[in-house]
Amino acid sequence: MKATENILEVHDVIKSFHDPVTVQVLKKVSLVVKRGEFVSITGKSGCGKSTLLYILSTMDTDYEGEVMIDGEPTRGLSGERLARIRNEKIGFVFQFHYLLPEFSVLKNVMLPGLKLGKHSTQEVEHRAMQRLRELDMHDHALKSANQLSGGQKQRVAIARALVNDPLIIMGDEPTGNLDSKNSGNVFDIFKSISAHHEQSLLVVTHDNDFAARTDRIIEMDDGKVVG
Amino acid sequence: MRLLLSIAITLLRAKLKQSVIAAVGVTFSITMFVTLLGFMNGLNGLLDGLILNRTPHVRLYNELKVSPQQPIEQAWAQGTAAGADSAHHFIRSVKPKDELPRLRNATAIMQALENDARVLAVSPRLVAQVFFNVGTVDLNAQVSGVDVMQEVRYYQFRDYLVQGDPQDLVAGQNTVVLGKGLADLMGTGIGENVQVTTATGDRALLRVVGIYQSGLADLDKVQCFANIKTVQKLLARPGSYFTDINVKLKDILSAPALAKEFQARFDVDALDIQTANAQFETGSDVRNIISYAVGVVLLIVAGFGIYNILNMMIYEKLDAIAILKATGFSGSDVRRIFLLLSMVIGFTGGLAGLIFGFVMQNVVDNIPFITAALPTITTFPVDYDPKYYIIAVTFALLTTWIAGWFPARKASQVDPVEIIRGK
To answer: CB of A11 within 8 A of CB of A66?
Structure first.
């Protein structure tokens, strides 16, 4: 595989909200993310950056235009197929950790891997442990998610996003709930992911310091890419 | 699927109290369902047995009746055809012939029936009207001459014999088993002699060897049993003289058809059990419908409980649903998780219900139930047929599946973007 391969391609995406009146929030957005690239999307609140991210994540299917993930157009695919793409090729980190309190930290990380079904349970457990170790969370593997601090939870959430070795990791304000120290930690983790594993990162943030340190900044304003 | 099941079970364990309450609802209804059906059908069996055990599936007999076509009408028809004026005749009917109520050719008929593959047992009967002479009073009674061992084997004769042994009836000549009511009226008991007078005026002395109680008081006042040879001797008739042939079939449902066939083939009258006892079947059906209705209503109530609990759980678990979907679980995976959750509640609740149901059936089975009408019954009757357990479990799974389906569908339609962006 070439290092310049396009992991994510977006052509002329238009998104409108219809309630209560029709408002176009994305106006012909186009962008490309290459393998191993660390890209941030910034812009004012309400400029449509999160809306764009959820379209790219395949979770929002109500849009016009074309989104290609790993060369495969996602428009019109079945819910099953899209779920499979999210499972296999995309890792998510949100502002809120969304760990399941009923499961242990390890099981939380393992769930997407078990769903993928590519490896045996032992293998998935081994890989999950490895991710936790990389994030220095392996000591907490058997704790319940409720027993961790905010920064720790976010690190577990990152481990969960990484467990299936996705092509791209998408983040929606992943540092939004963290203090500057933890925020710096998360950035370092992201940076090393893109450097060592050749995985792409696409992070929506309004933290300008965070954005400034990424490879490329996509700036949005009023539903359009401005820079 | 195993992954989905383990997620479902983990979610259940996190809400253990609510899950247990939902399962207890199912357990309660299944327990009631199984107990009620077992009890109702035990009762049905008992009540049906009262009549059906002792009733032959097909009874062959010779009925006294007027000629279906009166001779005068034949003559009349010929006369009118020949052009005679219309006139009126005063001859109403020809009375029945003075004919013995015996079955003609009874031995040959029995032979033929015994060779018929559809027939389980054939037993002859000779029914005689007699009077028992008690002091100056004559009591009207009916003595049935029976093949005692056939009666014991196929008509539960022994169950209704409250005193005495059927063997005595086989062995002894001039022995009789009296109905309980009749014996009480005569103030007599086992070992005593009673005097009988036949319709033709012959007298004989019979020794009482048993007391019979059918549970139908009117019947017990007139019904007596004796060895068929004794009755033949009493009536001074030969050994081939029978008034009835009782047939027990392998398949009771074929009785109406076979009754018609025998009637045509042997030129006798035939009465099948369904025609003779139509009201019993209706009673059983109604009792069955009532118990099924109660059971199903209970299950539906339990279903609503499950529906409520699942609905609540889905609202509490919106975050979990959203993240499962974001990390690659499809809508149908989520639906399956909640359906499985519901089915686990239904299955465990149902299984516990079966166990409690069995216990309750045993409890009912041991409640004393003593009635003079039913000499062989000491406790409430219960039917332990596994059929009811299978029906109960099927119903339980079906109800919980339906109760789980709607909340599960709602969960599968949760839009993760809405949940995640809402935070």
So the answer is: yes
Written as six digits, the tokens of A171 are 């983040």
Could you say which of B3, B13, B323 has the minimum Cβ distance to residue A98?
B323
CB contact under 8 A, B420 and A160: no
Q: Which two tokens stand for residue B264?
A: 């045509």
- Type and span of the H or E element at B65: none
Which residues on adjacent β-strands are paired with residue B210? B164, B177
Residues 7 to 46 of A: which have CB under 8 A from any B CB?
A: none
ipTM above 0.95, yes or no: no
- The pLDDT confidence band at residue A3, using thresholds 50, 70 and 90, is very low
Q: How far is B315 from B174, CA to CA, in rounded Å?
A: 85
Nearest-CA distance A76 → chain B (Å): 15
Rounded to 5°, the CA angle B2-B4-B8 comes to 115
Tell me whether residues A92 and B326 touch, CB distance under 8 A.
yes
pTM for the full predicted model: 0.72
Over the stretch B135-181, which tens digit does the pLDDT of each residue have?
A: 888 889 999 999 888 888 888 888 888 888 888 888 878 899 999 99
**Was domain A37-59+78-225 assigned CATH 3.40.50.2300?**
no
* Sign, Cα dihedral of B324, B325, B328, B331: positive
Is B330–A80 a contact, with Cβ atoms under 8 angstroms apart?
A: yes
- The sheet carrying A6-17 orders its strands as A23-34, A6-17, A64-69, A72-73
What is the pLDDT, as a whole number, of residue B33?
Answer: 86
Judged by phi (left if over 0) then psi (alpha if -120 to 50, else beta), residue A141 lies in: alpha
Give me the residue from B10, B330, B421 closest to A50, CB to CB.
B421
Chain B touched by A62 (CB under 8 Å): no
Tens digits of per-residue pLDDT, A192-214? Answer: 888 887 889 999 988 888 888 89
